[in-house]
Amino acid sequence: MNVNEFMQRYKRAASNYLNELDKNKLENLNEFESKMDANIVKEFQDINTLLLDEKFLDRILDEMTLEELCEFEEMIELDKVKIAKILSENPQINNYINMKNK
Asked: How much is the pTM?
């Protein structure tokens, strides 16, 4: 996978996941995972797995131009803001995530 493919895949996965998370207002915690589109969740998990692979991440970051690095950093920061907004509007999502992480 080259830098351009990675950037496109990251954008798509993060955007789809955040949109799915935002549109699924939860009625109870048990419905959380079943309400989300499984393909979107899988795509997001796959891209996060790549980000945790140090060799892959080192290679991609080394291949990125300064402009691509800046764009990637901006995407991550924007995603953090979107996640914070979603969590503040949907405390039950935050509670569910905290429960799953224990």
From this structure: 0.70
